[in-house]
Design goal:
By secondary structure, the protein is an alpha/beta fold. The chain is built from 15 helices and 10 strands. The strands form 3 sheets. It has a 5-stranded parallel beta sheet with strand order 1-2-5-6-7, sandwiched between helices. A 3-stranded parallel beta sheet has the order 8-9-10. Strand 5, helix 6 and strand 6 form a beta-alpha-beta unit. Helix 1 packs across helix 14 and helix 8 runs parallel beside helix 9. The longest helix has 24 residues. The chain is globular. The two termini are about 30 Å apart. The structure holds zinc ion. Zinc ion binds next to loops.
């Protein structure tokens, strides 16, 4: 989930600039595709829709997921930072997990929860779409390891330590106060307990110091569930810089590339920064609930359209990771349903993974490389965490 986008923005129409070969479609359908960050649960919290059928809005539903060959979209149990340090964060996490269970309850012939890498494999073979769970923001743990166990038992298999503000676990890249200078004392304990249980440590969103402390403490490979590269967005700490990517490679982890345009190109990132500043100024002047403010937003959006990234710019991120640390440490964490109308051309929703595959084929990636990017790398990291937990 992006802290800066409202989900209510209407989706841009599809403009397909790429011709997808039979081979790309075949690779999509015949191999497991894991996308480690899709914000369906919070989309349902904002407005319930039945994603087991075609939906007019949003980036995810069953028919489009099938078309794209998606097999294991991690459902993001996203807790806004406004609920940090409140019991309501724990309640909301339970409620969002209930939504995912409701999706499966409605269509057990289409979906199944997955709590292990083996579940994903077996359910793929049965033709079911797996819905593994990742928690975006550790605030629901509330400093109590009993809550960690509770959420493990409910199926949570990764936790993004913080979201847009420092919480009781970690500093956030978006929050310049740097309350803990990295992880809090509890956060350091939590990482160890997550290792012991088999919950992957997700370093997306945290500050650089928190990232380095997390990989130092973690006995297992970590993930960045939905991060892109700072090399393309200088100064944007939410993305990972080259030194961090190299450290992630040494840790054996995987970075799952976020598709949101503002994560991908310098131009879209600057647009987002400017929009935020202009809106803040206008809200202070006009009052954020006023009709004048709403009129300002409409006018601003019309006069300053987002410069969308392209499929090519997303491929540049994948190439860059591969150049730095090889093919074994990169995957997909689109942030579908989490970044509003900011997705790149040709990657507008879950039906478009074949476009990504075509792009990889066109850049000379082998079938074997592509299979690693689609799921193999993430599965390796997940299995390493499962094996560690089984022994501890
Ligand atoms: Zn996010």
């Amino acid at each position: 989930m992006s802290a800066t986008f409202a989900l209510s923005v209407v989706c841009a129409s599809h403009v397909a600039a790429i011709t997808v070969s039979e081979k790309a479609n075949k690779l999509a359908q015949e191999n497991i595709i894991i996308d480690s960050h899709i914000d369906v649960p919070y989309r349902l919290e904002e407005k319930w829709v039945d994603v087991t059928k075609a939906t007019a809005s949003g980036d995810f539903d069953y028919p489009r997921a099938k078309q794209g060959g998606l097999n294991a979209p991690f459902m993001s149990i996203y807790i806004p930072a406004s609920l940090d340090n409140s019991a309501n964060s724990t309640k909301l996490a339970d409620k969002l997990i209930d939504y995912v269970e409701a999706i499966v309850g409605r269509a057990p012939n289409k979906f199944a929860i997955a709590t292990s890498s083996a579940d994903v494999q077996q359910q793929f073979e049965k033709g079911l779409i797996s819905l593994p769970l990742g928690m975006e923001n550790g605030s629901p743990i509330q400093g109590d390891l009993a809550n960690l166990k509770h959420f493990y038992d409910r199926g949570i298999r990764y936790i993004t330590l913080a979201h847009s503000m420092a919480n009781h676990i970690s500093d956030s890249s978006y929050d310049l106060r740097r309350k803990w200078k990295g992880l809090s004392p509890f956060g350091k304990e939590l990482v160890k307990e997550m290792n012991n249980l088999g919950i992957l440590v997700d370093i997306s969103h945290v500050s650089d110091a928190a990232f380095y402390q997390a990989i130092e403490i973690s006995q297992t490979p970590v993930i960045a569930s939905h991060s892109s590269l700072r090399a393309f967005t200088p100064g944007f700490e939410r993305n990972m810089d080259d030194a961090m990517i190299k450290a992630l490679g040494k840790n054996g982890g995987v970075v799952q590339i976020n598709f949101g345009s503002t994560f991908v190109t310098k131009r879209a990132n600057a647009w987002s920064k400017n929009r935020r500043a202009e809106q803040k100024k206008a809200a202070e002047k006009l009052g954020k609930d006023s009709d004048e403010f709403k009129a300002f937003i409409t006018k601003f959006n019309k006069e300053n359209p987002l410069p969308y990234a392209t499929l090519d710019s997303v491929l540049d991120h994948i190439d860059h990771v591969v150049k730095l640390i090889g093919i074994d440490h990169v995957g997909i964490g689109s942030d579908y349903d989490g970044v509003g109308d900011s997705l790149p051309t040709d990657l507008k929703d879950v039906s478009t993974y074949p476009n990504l595959i075509q792009g990889l084929l066109d850049r000379g990636y082998s079938d074997n490389d592509i299979v690693k990017i689609l799921a193999g790398n993430f599965m390796r990291v997940w299995k390493a965490n499962e094996e560690y937990a089984a022994k501890h």
